[in-house]
Design brief:
Layout lengths: L7 H24 L2 H24 L4 H19 L3 H27 L4 H20 L8 H18 L2 H17 L3 H18 L3 H21 L10 H7 L10 H4 L7 H17 L2 H13 L4 H25 L17 H35 L1
Helix pairs in contact: 1-2, 1-3, 2-3, 2-4, 3-4, 3-12, 3-13, 3-15, 4-15, 5-6, 5-7, 6-7, 6-14, 6-15, 7-8, 7-9, 8-9, 8-14, 13-14, 14-15
Length: 376
């Protein structure tokens, strides 16, 4: 009798669940905190529940779901070593992000390239970006939420109205980002839009004017606004010096960074090797997203899947380059490794859209197989 082999997906999910238990069990045994023991049981159970029951109920992509949950788990574990209560608060933020993910997976099934969808999403996205300019006291970080809405608007406009209206909407968002003093977000948004235009409509008559408009906006913004702050020292040496497992103190260079970013904590507590392998998970995440985009039947779904993959992968790349001093940005966090509730919900909402598109593709393939069987 031949032995039944487990599938690679099952082995991958099992390995992630085992690691999620160990990553909380070790600090729990060190500190003896009841909160850490609770997280050691709660986080793997939620991951198993979401990866099996919820994934089957809502037809979610299990690979994308598992990768995003593991990155969120690493962010919770980074706080667990230094502050168990903050780790519990971060787990509650991830729970709210899970609800946003489910909303995105449900929304994408009824989303169509209608004029109403494009106008409403563009209005809300631009309004959120303009909120800080219209009311300086408005300090709620909603940039990532606005970019998620504007990505939907850009996709629907490009599908329904053509490239001109889509470029105008994207340029307005880029101008608001620059004059809000967020050049990192503007750079991510501009590169994503140009790559999407190249993938959908590669004509130079479209690409060159769009690139020219974005270049002019960057030039005007950097000439009128003060230059962004440059990190004072190379983060690589500081992170290497703080690479011991369980170290409770971080270098001053790391402590001075924006507290929203959890990647310095991950690197400081677990070392460069572990954090580097964690960030490398964005490679299969991006590859899976591009695969979902390539097999999508709807042009809108394909563009959204590609845009989501680009937006998250570029954010991770620019955040790492900024952390190590190669780019002069200090206010950007690695996706899913953030303590900002709006940012985490926006990123998981985009992940939900991507999972929903993957589920829609699977449904289309199953319907094709059924029709082929009937035709025989």
């Amino acid at each position: 009798m031949s032995k039944q082999k487990s599938s690679p997906r099952f082995r991958f999910t099992g390995a992630v669940l085992l690691l999620s238990i160990l990553i909380f069990l070790v600090p729990a045994l060190q500190n003896g905190s009841s909160t850490l023991y609770l997280l050691c049981v709660l986080i793997p159970c939620i991951m198993l529940f979401a990866g099996t029951l919820l994934a089957r109920m809502f037809s979610l992509d299990r690979m994308i779901l598992t990768l995003s949950f593991w990155l969120c788990t690493v962010g919770i574990a980074a706080l667990a070593l230094s502050d168990p209560e903050a780790a519990m608060a971060q787990s509650l933020r991830c729970g709210a992000g899970l609800a946003a993910l489910l909303c995105g997976s449900i929304l994408i099934r009824s989303l169509s390239a209608s004029l109403l969808t494009s106008v409403c999403s563009a209005f809300l996205g631009l309004l959120l970006l303009a909120g800080k300019l219209l009311a300086p006291a408005f300090s709620l970080p909603l940039t990532e939420v606005a970019l998620a809405l504007l990505l939907v608007s850009f996709g629907t406009l490009l599908t329904r109205q053509g490239p001109l209206s889509a470029i105008l909407c994207a340029s307005a968002a880029l101008a608001l980002l620059l004059f809000r003093g967020e050049p990192a977000e503007a750079l991510i948004w501009g590169i994503t839009i140009l790559l999407l235009l190249f993938a959908v409509d590669g004509r130079l008559v479209i690409l060159l004017p769009a690139a020219a408009v974005m270049a002019v906006l960057f030039f005007v913004a950097f000439s009128l606004l003060p230059a962004p702050a440059v990190p004072q020292e190379n983060m690589i040496s500081a992170l290497v010096s703080a690479g011991g497992l369980g170290s409770d103190s971080l270098p001053e260079a790391i402590a001075s960074l924006d507290k929203v970013s959890l990647f310095p904590l991950v690197t400081g507590h677990y070392g460069l090797a572990f954090s580097g392998l964690t960030v490398l998970l964005f490679l299969p995440f991006t590859l899976r997203g591009t695969t979902v985009a390539s097999v999508a039947r709807s042009r809108l779904h394909g563009m959204l899947a590609m845009g989501i993959s680009l937006l998250l992968s570029l954010r991770a790349l620019i955040a790492l380059l900024s952390l190590f001093g190669f780019l002069p940005f200090t206010d950007i966090a690695v996706p899913f490794l953030t303590s900002s509730l709006p940012g985490l919900c926006a990123e998981l909402f985009l992940t939900g859209l991507l999972c929903g598109i993957s589920g829609r593709n699977d449904a289309d393939l199953a319907e094709d197989a059924h029709l082929a069987m009937l035709a025989q």
